[in-house]
Design goal:
Elements: E1 22-28, H1 37-48, E2 53-59, H2 71-82, H3 101-106, E3 125-128, E4 134-137, H4 146-155
Parallel strand pairs: 1-2
Antiparallel strand pairs: 1-3, 3-4
Family: Belongs to the glutathione peroxidase family.
Keywords: Oxidoreductase, Peroxidase
Protein name: Glutathione peroxidase
Length: 159
């Protein structure tokens, strides 16, 4: 992940610090029917952070304007409503001509059904293993889905 992205609080997010770790990149939104997935994403963070894993939340407002807030509003919502401790990036575009370079690198990866290309909705997930391999998950895949949990466990750096 050699791309530059700002953190939600401003300043570089320094993705290089995740090198050698397993990272679940998720485009997130505060006003979506899938927003309750924040709770499950935080559970993954709590369960695996000490083993070389992080969730990386990437706010995006491209799906029916479901992430309209400012950086401060997004941060406040995530921390007070769901107790989010995982890092959040600046709000970006994941589709179209303004697609962020991070997503330009990810969208060619097929999910279990073979889907590649544009992000379909909020909460689409990409698990990046320490070796750089990527596994893509449908937005409706819950964070506690056995296939996702198994993939996270398999991607954890070996001690």
């Amino acid at each position: 992940m050699d791309v530059e992205i700002e953190s939600l609080q401003g300043g570089p997010a320094d993705l290089a610090r995740y090198r050698g770790k397993a990272v679940l990149v998720v485009n997130v939104a505060s006003q979506c029917g899938l927003t309750p997935q924040y709770a499950g994403l935080e559970e993954l963070q709590k369960n695996y952070a000490e083993r070389g894993f992080t969730v990386l939340g990437v706010p995006c407002n491209q799906f029916l304007g479901q992430e309209p807030g400012s950086a401060e509003e997004i941060q406040s919502f995530c921390s007070t409503t769901y107790g989010v401790t995982f890092p959040l990036t600046e709000k970006i575009e994941v589709n179209g001509p303004g697609r962020h370079p991070l997503y330009r690198e990810l969208v060619d990866v097929p999910d279990a059904t073979g889907h590649t290309g544009d992000i379909r909705w909020n909460f689409e997930k990409f698990l990046i293993a320490p070796d750089g391999s990527v596994t893509r998950f449908d937005p409706r895949t819950e964070p506690d889905d056995p296939a996702l949990v198994a993939a996270v466990e398999a991607a954890l750096p070996q001690a």
